[in-house]
Specification:
- The protein has 857 residues and is mainly beta.
- Among the domains are: 225 residues, Immunoglobulin-like; 100 residues, no CATH class; 193 residues, no CATH class.
- 4% of the residues lie in helices and 50% in strands.
- It has a 24-stranded antiparallel β-barrel. Strands 1, 2, 3, 4, 5, 6, 7, 8, 9, 10, 11, 12 and 13 form a 13-stranded mixed sheet that branches. The protein has a three-stranded mixed sheet with strand order 32-33-40, with no helix packed on it.
- The relative contact order is 0.09.
Length: 857
């Protein structure tokens, strides 16, 4: 407690306001006015207007020799007219034959020479738009938020061209003003930075000096002056699309009857729209969106009793979502997320959705998203005599398909609403509020309805809803090195059955409320020492999973880290970081059982030759699991563990590069003085024989002792039985990419996944203290009570993408999914990672063509 009080007092004693002087505050680059007819975006920079624009070439090296003069000269000129702002960059190179011009898909360029432009048009020192291109002409863009976080999934429609020169290469950008949020003022002043990377030397060159030890990024930009304020734009983009599919899948939903297969053709129509309501407020909307071109999720074996988090890949839910990100989020995952976009549209089609984001007053940012999911279903499907008629269904009006297709889904109509607002405090801090609601459109589930078998329950008993609200804050000092962030959350259960039981045994009734909070205090900038301390609380009835993501509730968490960092290099190393993490979690109910307690040490280095090598070691004590004995309220003691992991990656610029992690695991059991060991390997080999071609093979394998796992009871009131499980996994993932031009490419993706688990012993558990089972008190039981498992699957995806005009695309896609054929109950379970029975199992093939055409109004 003394540590927390002293740290808080230290933070509050520091000024939480904008710095009057900063690294880029005196830098001012001028943009010259031109006519919209003067510039042709071809990368040549030969129009007369370019020679009239002011020249900027005072770049500085950020890496590997921080603060030094660049080894190659870079020239920057900027123009603007009433519709666009233009950037001309000449990248001089004394060895032009060594410029790396590799091709890749949009937003995923391979390691190569490139330039990026960063624009903080709102000049809020928190958010910025990033536009980049590599020397091969591959575009990429992203959105920066909260000063140093990035969302690479943000996409926008803008133009760029590159051209080789005898002394290097040049890039010509055209950025539409309607993409940028800015206030209507007589003269525009934006935050601004340019970053150039030279692949063969790993050199990073910037228009403004940003120390590598700094946690602030946008707040350290220089200034771009646009002499005449652009007029308010009412720009509108319409993107209608049409999708045709032919799906060949098993007729029956019973996994044991996967033959014969039926061909199901279908047609979907839809529309995406984007409108600039003002210069700083944008509306996105979609009707019947289709995401068939998005790559399938990776196949995994989840033997935990918690939901796994998957990143969002669908364009509507990735673009412009910075304001919806919770404070403290890492890679899109926050401690208590009110909004998890993957709740929307994965089981029931999205009928329509709209998203409004922007600035409504100086320093006040808002985001509102609303989505309605709704679908059609036949009341009495007959799989023996499938209904192969095409019929219009009002609840799914833009979809045309066989009635038999509808029998495979159980649509759960719901409305999802998310609203966020954040206001600036000074230049580096914010306070905000969030609201999320998932509202079933199904009526009310009665006690009688809930008592029916699951397959006969009405949708009102299955569609779970909830309301959630939160306030958050991010307080930072002017140099962005110290921060105090946190959130307080409240939830209410709506919809669903009158009562349900959560995995930890908590009884959750309709209308119940819950409380959550988290706070993080620390010094995350500067060197050599940094630290942070964090606390989280989730009450037993906190429920965010109707619209958000909370893998587990009913806990307190207390943790902290101490870091020794040398981001600018340490001896022969290009960078070095050592991190010590201490953490403890215990239940929030009256038992206060230990759920996690241990320590982790990480060493991260960048070696000479630009290869990385990392070491991680962890030690965790025995603890309890409240969710293993699902719904019982009985906690199972789990063994502790010790592990050691070594990971590394070779220089990504090499034609053949390798990234790999090897881990050894030891779990000592509290029974019979035994211990079990496991291992895992995860490696990716990337081969780039020439600029247009890339092959990537990922091999992941593991053998993990899971300890005693619940195998169920023979009848109500029987003792708890556990099998000592050892799991084995093998995953082979192959990606092939052929880029004919930056706008025409072919991708192939295939994953072969296999796993099995075997039980080496079966035990009976006795409940002690009325609520726990201890490992030391397990007694042997009949071995036949635990059966192993085996599974294998194949995912295949082929995509041809052609952007035939700017913003308009044609996709041709083939997918195949195949599952291992089921075994008879009396058949032995294979104990091999070979894909036994995969080729004879159920399979689904789909061929899809998606066409879209962009209208700009």
């Amino acid at each position: 407690m003394r540590f927390w009080l002293l740290s808080l007092a230290t933070l509050l004693a520091l000024p939480v306001q904008a710095a009057t002087q900063g690294p880029g505050v005196d830098q001012r680059i001028e943009a010259a006015r031109t006519s919209s007819r003067e510039i042709s975006v071809d990368g040549s920079l030969d129009e007369p207007a370019w020679s009239q624009a002011p020249l900027f070439e005072s770049f500085v090296q950020l890496f590997p020799n921080e603060g030094a003069a660049p080894t190659e000269r870079t020239e920057l000129r900027i123009l603007h007219d009433e519709r666009n702002v233009y950037f001309g960059i000449v990248c001089h190179d004394s060895q032009p034959d060594l410029i790396v011009r590799k091709l890749g898909r949009r937003d995923s360029p391979p390691a190569s020479d490139d330039v990026q432009i960063f624009i903080d048009s709102a000049h809020d020192h928190q958010t910025a738009y990033a536009f980049g291109v590599n020397a091969g002409g591959v575009q990429f863009d992203s959105l920066l938020f909260a000063d140093n976080n990035s969302s690479p999934s943000w996409d926008a429609l803008w133009d760029v061209a590159v051209r080789p020169r005898p002394d290097g290469w040049s890039a010509e950008f055209s950025i539409p003003l309607h993409l940028l949020r800015f206030a209507q003022m007589p003269e525009q002043t934006w935050g601004f930075s340019v970053l150039r990377r030279i692949s063969r030397t790993h050199e990073e060159i910037s228009s403004v000096y940003i120390p590598r030890s700094s946690t602030g990024r946008v707040s350290r930009f220089g200034h771009l002056a646009v002499q005449t304020a652009p007029p308010t734009s009412r720009h509108v983009e319409l993107l209608p699309y049409a999708v045709t599919r032919a799906v060949l899948r098993p007729r029956y939903s019973d996994p044991l009857r996967y033959q014969p297969r039926l061909l199901e053709p279908s047609l979907d129509l839809g529309l995406d729209m984007q409108a600039a309501l003002s210069s700083d407020l944008t509306l996105n909307a979609t009707v019947n969106p289709d995401f068939g071109q998005v790559e399938a999720d990776q196949l995994i074996l989840n033997l935990t009793n918690q939901e796994q988090f998957f990143p969002e890949k669908r364009p509507f839910f990735t673009q412009g979502m910075g304001v919806f990100q919770p404070v403290g989020a890492e890679d899109g995952l926050g401690p208590q997320m009110l909004f998890y976009s993957r709740r929307i549209g994965l089981t029931t089609p999205i009928l329509t959705a709209a998203k409004l984001a922007g600035t409504v007053a100086r320093g006040v940012e808002v985001g509102v998203l609303d989505a309605v999911v709704m679908g059609a279903q036949l009341p009495d499907p007959d799989e023996e005599n499938p209904d192969l008629r095409f019929r219009f269904h009002p609840t799914q009006p833009l979809h045309l398909g066989l009635n038999h297709e509808l029998a495979r889904t159980r649509p759960l109509p719901e409305n999802y609403l998310v609203a966020v607002t954040r206001a600036k405090l000074g230049e580096t801090s914010t306070v905000g509020a969030q609201l999320a609601a998932a509202t079933p459109l199904t009526g009310t589930c009665s006690e009688a309805d809930a008592a029916l078998p699951l397959e006969r329950q009405p949708a009102s008993c299955v569609a779970l809803g909830g309301n959630a609200a939160a306030v958050d804050w991010l307080l930072r000092t002017s140099d962005a090195q110290w921060h105090l962030l946190g959130q307080i959350t409240g939830t209410q259960v709506v919809g669903g059955p009158p009562e349900r039981i959560l995995p930890d045994g908590t009884r959750l009734r309709r209308g119940d409320t819950g409380l959550g909070a988290y706070v993080n205090l620390g010094k995350l900038g500067g060197e050599p020492f940094r630290f942070d301390a964090r606390y989280r609380y989730a009450s037993p009835t906190l429920e965010l999973n109707a619209a958000g993501f909370l893998p587990t509730q009913n806990h307190h968490y207390l943790g902290g880290s101490l870091q020794y960092v040398r981001p600018g290099g340490w001896g022969p190393l290009h960078s070095f970081m050592a991190i010590l993490i201490l953490e403890r979690r215990w239940s929030a109910d009256t038992r206060q059982l230990a759920l996690l307690q241990g320590a982790t040490l990480k060493l991260l280095t960048l070696l000479p030759g630009f290869h990385s090598l990392n070491l991680e070691a962890g030690y965790y004590l025995p603890h309890h699991d409240l969710r293993e004995l699902t719904g019982s309220g009985v906690a199972l003691e789990r063994p502790g563990e010790r592990y050691l992991a070594l990971s590394g990656e070779t220089d990504v610029n090499l034609p053949l590069s390798l990234k790999a992690t090897v881990q050894l695991l030891n779990r000592p059991y509290a029974r019979e003085g035994r211990a079990a060991t496991g291992w895992s390997v995860d490696s990716t080999l990337t081969f780039r024989p020439e600029d247009r071609l890339e092959s990537r093979l990922t091999v992941a394998a593991e053998s993990t002792p899971q300890g005693p796992r619940w195998v169920g009871a023979t009848d109500p009131g029987a003792p708890f039985y556990f099998g000592e499980l050892h799991s084995h996994v093998l995953s082979l993932t192959f990606r092939q990419q052929l880029v004919l031009t930056p706008r025409l490419m072919l991708q192939a993706y295939a994953q072969l996944f296999s796993s099995f688990g075997d039980y080496t012993g079966v035990y009976q558990g006795t409940v002690v203290d009325g609520s726990r089972i201890r490992l030391a008190e397990l007694s042997p039981a009949e071995p036949g009570l635990a059966q192993g498992f085996h599974g294998s699957a194949l995912n295949l995806n082929l995509v041809l993408r052609w952007e035939y005009r700017l913003g308009s695309t044609l996709f041709l896609i083939y997918t195949r999914t195949q599952q291992e054929s089921p075994r008879a109950l009396e058949a032995p379970v294979p104990t091999t990672l070979l894909p036994v029975g995969l080729l004879t199992g159920a399979s689904t093939d789909a061929l899809m063509m998606k066409w879209s055409y962009l209208w700009s109004l």
